[in-house]
Amino acid sequence: MLYVVIFFFLVSIFLYCLLGGADFGAGIVELTTGKENKDKVRGLISSAMAPIWEANHIWLIISVVILFNGFPQIYSQVSISLYIPLILLLVGIVLRGSAFTFRHYDAIKDKSQKYYNIIFEYSSLMVTFFFGLVVGAIVSGKINNAPSGFYEGYIEPWLNPFSISIGIFLCALFAFIASVYLIGDSTNREQINIFIKKSKNATILMIIAGALVFASSYFEGTPLFTGFFSDPLSIILIILATGILPVLWKVVGKGHAWFSRFLAGTQLLFILGAFYVVYFPNLVVINNSESLSFYNSSAPEITLTYLGIALLVGSVLIFPSLFYLFKIFEVKK
């Protein structure tokens, strides 16, 4: 049952990056849109996100529940060592959700909408960046389970070039996914052209940020650089992710919505797959060459059994319901 739990954890992370990432990326896209197109883009984003944005958080909730119940030692270590960026991440999620709710459902449209828009846009960037920062800190090898001081224990693990570079990469990646998804939510050619341009710009930034991740990993001595180049599968997956780009740009340029989304999701799968291959089964890399893995940090077998059963039963209910939700609220504007 351990592998069932691991499978659902990895799938939930992938779906949160894909669906939740598209939502966060939409805020980044709105933030980086010029004044002349801001209202058009904002209106489409609000219409596309309103029915489903809250449902997409289910994948984050599932992954946290899996860690809390299935791998409590990992949950505890991450919560303690990274409590500062995690708090900032949660603050950003609350601010973003509140701002989006008020700006979309507020009965009275007044000057306060301006502030809701600003909070939504910048908190989307904030959440994405700190999400990447946390991921970088978890695998950087800088977490110390016996720190000698506050900085070493609670600042150094996440305030470093490697973690920051992953935060930047994730901002570009989520903006790219959002741009591709928004192409399919619009029938207006002018809007489609805006998102085509943004998807290409985000791709260029994503490539630059990816190079920055590897460069910082090399100079910081984190396991990613050596692990990636010593594993043929991870190299193959990154080559495949890169090889999709020309096809994706061509498909995006023709406005093929669902095929574009499929290719963007496939590219994300390859990127995360390369990341998983480098570190699996380790989840938290400690600076004293130890690691907390799915194997040495798992809960008792009886706990994993009940957790696995709950996940299997829940998936039968969740996946069809979410598919139906996306289908009935599909928006074309």
Give the arrangement of secondary structure elements.
Layout: H1 2-31, H2 35-49, H3 58-70, H4 72-81, H5 83-105, H6 112-139, H7 150-154, H8 161-184, H9 189-220, H10 223-229, H11 232-253, H12 257-279, E1 282-285, E2 291-293, H13 301-328
Antiparallel strand pairs: 1-2
Helix pairs in contact: 1-2, 1-3, 1-6, 1-8, 1-13, 3-4, 5-6, 6-8, 8-9, 8-12, 9-10, 9-11, 10-12, 11-12
Overview of this structure, please?
The chain is mainly alpha-helical. The protein has one domain. Helices cover 78% and strands 2% of the residues. The chain has 13 helices and 2 strands; from the N terminus they run ααααααααααααββα. It has a two-stranded antiparallel sheet. A hairpin with a 5-residue loop joins strand 1 and strand 2. Helix 5 packs antiparallel against helix 6, helix 10 crosses helix 12 and helix 11 runs antiparallel to helix 12. The longest helix has 32 residues. It is globular.
Q: What structural keywords apply?
A:
mainly alpha; 78% helix; 333 residues
Structure in a nutshell:
With 333 residues, the protein is mostly helical. The chain is built from 13 helices and two strands.
| Major β-sheet annotation | 2 strands, antiparallel
Percentage of residues in DSSP E strands: under 5%
- In whole angstroms, the N-to-C terminal distance is 45 Å
Low-pLDDT residue intervals, each spanning 5 or more residues: none
How many domains make up the 3D coordinates? Answer: 1
Helical stretch count?
13
Query: By helix and strand content, what is the structural category?
Result: mainly alpha
Q: Estimate the helix proportion, in percent.
A: over 70%
